[in-house]
User: Fold this.
Amino acid sequence: MTRQKIINSPEFGNKAETYEAVDDVASNPDLGRTIGDVINARYGRRDIMRGMLGVSASTALFGTSALIAPSKAGASSTPASRYNFEELAAGNDETHHIAQGYDAQILLRWGDPVTADAPAFDVYNQSAAAQLQQFGYNNDFVGFVPMNNSGTRGLLCVNHEYTNEEMMFAGLGRQDRNEFSGMTPELIDIEMAAHGGSIVEIVQDTSGKWFVVRDGQLNRRITPLETKMTLSGPAAGHPRLQTGDDPEGTQVIGTLNNCAGGMTPWGTWLMAEENFHGYFWTDVLDAKGKPDLSAHPDAISKKRYKIPSMWYAWGTRYDRFNIDKEPNYSNKFGWIVEVDPMDPNTTPIKRTALGRFSHEGAETTISSDGRLVVYMGDDNRFDYLYKFVSDNIVSDTPSENRNLLDEGTLYVARFEVDGTLSWLPLVHGTGPLTAENGFPSQADVLIDTRLAADALGATPMDRPEDAQPRGDGTAYVMLTNNRKRKTPNAANPRAESTFGHIIEIKEDHGNHAASTGKWSILIKCGDPSVAEVGAEWNPDTSQDGWFGSPDNCAMDADGRLWVATDQGARWHKSGKSDGLYAVETEGHARGNSKLFFRCPVGGELCGPCFTEDGETLFLAVQHPGTDGTKYFKGFERASTFDDPATRWPDFDPEMPPRPSIVVITKRGGGKIA
Ligand code: FEO
Ligand code: CA
Ligand code: CA
Assistant:
């Protein structure tokens, strides 16, 4: 289907679902390098290249270490998992649900005041000026910076990934079908002010309840509308970053589509810029109505990044989002942004050494030799997993880490058939990354990270989302789904993967800075009772406990893994709301999963963030009432502001559903699970 046909198709209920469907077309042309070719050459078995790999075939190819499935007898004689809570029943309805014995409190909602002088939210009289002081839309990553020793006061750092105009503004409806004709300049500015991030001081009282500190001196909004940022690292100042408003190539206004992220050991916040391509515009179209990039010298780069994708009308109002007027401005997006939440006077910095792609997250750890390592997924079909290793060691003095993220090596992952893993350095002058191959400098390698990784022969993955390291040299990678995959490879073992999988990485010598490691598949997601799905879980996993489309994830203080899901409009394939699952990674219970929290209909779960004492868990419910509501029994239509599938969390007839932060604590106090 063409873009316009998809936009007009009744199959997709809103712009976000349509965006997802159009984005289903991968920009990575290099599918010929898949391990399917290796398999075919080695085994001459075409039958295993299509559809699911049978157990015997996959065992023969990848060894038993790649499969979990301990014997049923062995598993049932041991405890199901280390997580101590009574599992929640899966399902889907208008509200959220939490496991028995826990409280779920709504802490912050779209529109809630952030800065001390913010006006109260008036959904029928919104303005950009008000939104710039209020909590933004679609909360995603959540980080917590303690401000006292007991951890009962601190700063919540929250990303606001994107906006759903049909759910935010009364009477507007979806705008991609009418060329954004309803998007007035004021509405565009409100949208921009609702993106970015929020820093909010919160405090816990003696009863365990958390509150927003309304006059918190550090409370702050960061937006693509007006927050000035700098670019640093090897690409800063490169001619490809120079624009009309910035001849030096070191300045940029704003950050956008901030999905997951991370916190550094020295207390700064890493905001990942994910689907930035959707915000750029062109008026120059070819005969088929597609962007005509023939006038652009960097058309190959723009195509690989799908720029411009025109999912927001910002480029009709601001030249910086129109590639006809500012062809280089899009090169200033797709980076990791470092923000110091403790100092509102510091300027956020885009760290170019960490590469440019659809950054899903940026979770950090320290290698055994003291360096910072950041794991990062490029959330695009057939794109790659990366990690950054700093040159210098992390200092106990925060100010000494100020430029740590500017010097280091960016690596991309190649998953070998034999269960080993190679991290390939993206360094100008090594291997194919030379001027003759289109990479004249390290700046070009970083601006065109995807093209450089293509040249190195990285393994094309099933949409790498969040990747979560643990201090012992282990990392977990969420591969959310990839219905476009025709040829499985060892690390992405299912064709047309609807439910995704989770990979476990063990870096050599337990050192996160290692350039080699081992990998195995922890879980193949989906319903284990349907053979055709090809799911693999610990057999003790219940019908409530299995899930699809792992997305965000977190590690608690005990090194246990928690996984949040985002099934998008296809939640009906599982029949379950998105939720939070406790996933066992060790012992006989390895591969077991238990449902702990679930979202209201149409919402996806983001965040998970535990405080250090493990007694508080922050969750972010994104776009409640929005995705796939035509499958919601009794509603069965697309949601809008005026006619939403749920009005969670207010259930006020005058208020649409609002993305919100939820705080989980154990009733009576104590550690979660
Ligand atoms: Fe913003 Fe890849 O989820
Ligand atoms: Ca995500
Ligand atoms: Ca997501």
Summary: Confidence is low (pLDDT under 50) at residues 32-77. The longest helix spans residues 185-194. Residues 551, 566, 604 surround calcium ion (ligand 3) (CB under 6 Å). The chain has twelve helices and 29 strands.
